TrEMBL record:
GO CC entries: cytosol
Record-linked CDD domains: SpoU-like_RlmB
GO BP annotations listed: methylation; RNA processing
Record's protein name: 23S rRNA (Guanosine(2251)-2'-O)-methyltransferase RlmB
Domain RNA 2-O ribose methyltransferase substrate binding per the UniProt entry, residue ranges: 11-86
Cross-referenced SMART domains: SpoU_sub_bind
Any Pfam family hit: SpoU_methylase
GO molecular function terms attached to this record: RNA binding; RNA methyltransferase activity
NCBIfam families: rRNA_methyl_3
Transferase keyword on record: yes
UniProt record similarity statement: Belongs to the class IV-like SAM-binding methyltransferase superfamily. RNA methyltransferase TrmH family.
TM region(s), chain numbering: none
Length: 256
């Protein structure tokens, strides 16, 4: 039988998700580890949990399957405090604290939690200061997102906004260039020199792309060159390509 857990608490699943949550100082109430889990994989989690004073229980794997249904938990599940979403101002403050021009991602109705998790993982690797998602019609932070992000969700702040269009207007007022991605535009991603300044890159929905209003609000539209017969990439793959191009441009500028 599954233990009751507070609806205001969140389930994390997977060794990377749980380990990075511990290292990031997130409040965990309890960790469950499968009795047949490999000790070499779970030892770092047990050590971090002991240091943080978090209870660890070794249980039958079936209990973990019940706690995190449908998630590949790798024999590790934790009960955590609810994910703390950031404010847009927090993302801008993070850029200022690093002395860098803001580099933000705006996700226009990304619905697949696996895509959101993959985007967060790439965002952490490329120095994105934060991700902005709408409160409606968008994937939110869940155990699946945390697992897919390999724990990056603990390090990349995510802000939820009621109106993405109004958020774009505000960012533009602050001098941040809003860059949209569109297969039907003429300008090539690799031919633009916009990425060395303050930018917010919009990634559209998996099937529909960017909404019409969001598209119209972008300062510039860029496309990824396509040389094959398939003219589009998975949303998280496209986002990763763009993020690394921003990183490349900024590193090239700083090395001059």
């Amino acid at each position: 039988m599954v233990e009751d857990h507070d609806k205001n608490e969140e389930i994390l699943a997977g060794k990377h998700s749980v380990l990075e949550a511990l290292r990031a100082g997130r409040t965990l109430n309890k960790i469950w580890i499968a009795e047949n889990a490999q000790k070499a994989l779970t030892a770092p989690i047990v050590a971090e949990a002991r240091q943080a004073g978090v209870i660890v229980q070794h249980v039958d794997k079936r209990k973990l399957d019940q706690l995190a249904p449908g998630v590949q938990h790798q024999g590790v599940v934790a009960q955590a405090a609810p994910y703390a979403y950031a404010e847009v101002d927090d993302l801008l403050a993070a850029a200022e604290a690093k002395g860098e021009p803001p580099f933000l991602l705006l996700l226009d109705e990304i619905e697949d939690p696996h895509n959101l998790g993959s985007i967060l993982r790439s965002a952490d690797c490329t120095g994105v200061h934060g991700v902005i998602v709408p409160k409606r019609r968008s994937a939110q932070i869940t155990a699946t997102v945390s697992k897919t992000s390999a724990g990056a969700v603990e390090y990349v702040p995510v802000a939820r906004v009621t109106n993405l269009g109004q958020t774009i207007d505000r960012l533009k007022e602050l001098g941040i260039w809003v860059v949209g991605t569109d297969v039907d535009t003429d300008q090539d991603l690799f031919g633009s020199d916009i990425f060395t300044g303050p930018v917010a890159v919009v990634i559209g929905n998996e099937s529909k792309g960017m909404g019409r209003l969001i598209r119209e609000k972008c300062d510039i539209l860029l496309k990824l060159p396509m040389l094959g017969r398939i003219n589009s990439l998975n949303a998280s793959v496209a986002a990763g390509v763009i993020m690394y191009e921003v990183l490349r441009r900024r590193r090239t500028l700083s090395s001059r």
